[in-house]
Design a protein that fits this description.
288 residues; Rossmann fold; 2 domains; four-stranded parallel beta sheet; 10 helices; 10 strands; binds zinc ion
């Protein structure tokens, strides 16, 4: 009897010890924040892209690929931001464990060099992030049904935080008159934000950070800033400030500050709600 109890105790211990910890690789600081909130202590997150890394130019290293291959799930932002995705799926033995968070809502399309391209910067719409949170929640539950109740509880708490963030954002932007909602930034990353909050965007570069702007484009932009009376021009946290500085000199517009366009920051704007608050406060204060 004693022997049996010992065996039972042992098998219970090994069952608890073997409880599946979900390993989730994340290819964006935004999906990392969602995963942390939904996963809590049940999920081990492996951030492949950290703060300050330009996702447009990122290429996974052999070490990154190893981590991705080993992970149970891989979160991506989708909408063609991860240009290396097909190769990565091949390395990982198929697309099965890739969770496309950006597939939960429609894309904005922008014209670039005469053709229409998908705008990947969907996280500047809080509503999109709510939908992406539901996608992450479902993927965690499907992969680890034993912790369903925890993922549901965590996701509900994060969604409530996003809802109050949305309320705050609307109120904050409403203090800026409509005719002043003109945003000049380094690259075309704020169209979803513009749609939700009634801004017009004038970007120095296109939807990607890879192409240098032509001198004609810069001249046109300088003329637009002058004729529209735009008060401020914004840097981005991971973009070269050279062109922005040149534009402020030519137009007399001031530097409005630094915005987080392509992902979260290290100390400032280190979570998604903090990033939204930081960007909106910077924009509203500078354009008032
Ligand atoms: Zn971008």
């Amino acid at each position: 009897m004693k022997y049996l109890a010992a065996i039972l105790a042992l098998s219970v211990t090994s069952l608890v010890g073997a409880r599946a910890e979900l390993t989730v690789a994340s290819l964006s600081t935004i999906t990392t924040d969602i995963a942390k909130n939904v996963g809590g202590d049940r999920v081990k997150i492996i951030p492949i892209i950290g703060p300050g890394v330009d996702p447009h130019e990122f290429q996974p290293s052999p070490a990154d690929i190893k981590k991705i291959v080993k992970a149970d799930l891989v979160l991506i932002t989708g909408k063609h931001l991860e240009g290396y995705l097909t190769k990565l799926e091949e390395s990982a033995g198929g697309a099965g464990k890739f969770v496309d968070t950006g597939a939960a809502f429609p894309s904005l399309k922008l014209e670039e060099d005469g053709k229409m391209v998908e705008d990947p910067h969907w996280w500047h719409s809080i509503d999109n992030v709510k939908k992406a949170t539901a996608v992450v929640e479902k993927s965690f539950i499907d992969a680890d049904p034993a912790n369903k109740a925890t993922y549901e509880k965590n996701a509900a708490a994060y969604l409530a935080e996003l809802k109050s963030l949305e309320t705050w954002a609307k109120k904050e932007v409403s203090t800026l008159p409509r005719e002043k909602r003109k945003l000049v930034t380094s690259h075309d990353a704020f169209q979803y934000f513009a749609r939700d909050f009634g801004f017009k965007i004038y970007a120095i570069e296109g939807v990607s950070t890879e192409d240098e702007p032509s001198s004609k484009k810069i001249t046109d932009l300088i003329n637009t800033i002058k004729s529209e009376g735009v008060k401020a021009v914004f840097f981005e946290s991971i973009e070269n400030p050279k062109v922005v500085t040149e534009i402020t000199k030519e137009t007399g517009a001031k530097v409005g500050g630094e915005l987080y366009a392509d992902g979260l920051g290290d100390k400032t704007a280190a979570t998604y709600p903090e990033m939204v608050k930081y960007n909106i406060t910077t924009i509203v204060d500078s354009l008032k």
